[in-house]
Amino acid sequence: MGMWSKAAEMAGKAPPERNRYVDFLRALSIMAVVVGHWLVAAPYMKDGAVEGGHLLGILPWTQWLTWGFQVMPLFFCVGGFSNGVSWAATRAKGGTFSDWFGGRVQRLINPVMPLFLVWSVIAIAGTTLGIEREVVKMAAQLALIPVWFLAVYLIVSALVPFTHAAWQRWGMGSFWALVSGAVLVDWLSIGLGIPVVNWLNFLFVWLAIHQLGYAWQEGRFRQPLIWGLVSLAVLSALVRFGPYPVAMIGVPGNDLSNSMPPTLALLALGNMQIGLALALEPVMRRLLGTAWLWTATVLVNGMIMTVYLWHLTAFVLVMVAAWLMGGVGLDVAPGSADWWLARPVWFALYIAVTLPLIAIFSPFERMGSAAKNGELKQVPHWRLILGLGLICLGLTLTAAISIASPEGVTGLRIWVVALPFIGAALVGFGPAYTLAKRFDR
Asked: How far apart are CA 6 and CA 183, in angstroms?
């Protein structure tokens, strides 16, 4: 049975009360990120070497495009909707946080494990073959950048019992409290120049957006079009009169990034996107009643983490192939007319390399049998917390400093690679699960 047929079969089994627009927005947000990454990276040949060009720095006008391509806020809002439903269902059945969160971690981290292993082998092989270590490090870091998002999302998910309880008690007041926290953090960090405090906005901004998912799920998100337009006005004012850059992602050379860590401008962008997206919900839910669109949505959602995690590996592989062939196609100046005309060809190559990666690694995304069979139940909270900390630390360091090392025999930061695996074992799955169980006795 082909992938489309399997997706069609699953689509037909969806209960009629399911909000299909939630699944559509999840798929749309990840695919927009993939396209954005493929577009913004603009390497080119200079003096026989590959230079890592960045389209937003080369063509400043393209920074406005990030208002449409930086759609992680939509993903976090969808996460709030789904987490609210599943957490409420778990509590209604008498389940525990261990039941719920252990399964969540497994579904998110399972697809990451083969990615880490493959790039560990590439880093070691590249070092052994004498490839310049900085080149290996740059390639590994570029390919593994997407994992930073999982670290943030896991932390946001771990706080669901608290954020959902806050929503149940205070409603939109819990959202505005988090917005106030984001305002305070930006005032302290940007206005007063206090260092480090801006990293708190990883919590305030993403949790605020996550709260809107609860509002949507309970039908308490009123007047979404007005909400979106007002948020657009706020965002425009912040960019026009405030210190915030136009780009909603980091741009080389800019002192301030709206995403690392997130700022009030990114929060306003998220509110704008959510408002406009929910204004379209009635129309889109009718369209999703058609078999082909709903089947396509189910198909993408069935491999969504694989696509997200491996799309930059495909990009790197295509770039390496072009470089090995003498830099074919890389002699065009980024941002020129010829460069834009060549984008469809390059995108076709990225897709062609991504498809076999999906075929090989998407089964890891569907490995949820342990959670379904109850093997993750009753994991002590200390193990959940410690495991979560190790996983998130490993993912963060991978994106920040790369698993490839400029020193050592192997050329690999083995300790960075090991952190997510050890954390997964503590949470209750992974290669070292048996060891963790023995340790807990």
From this structure: 47
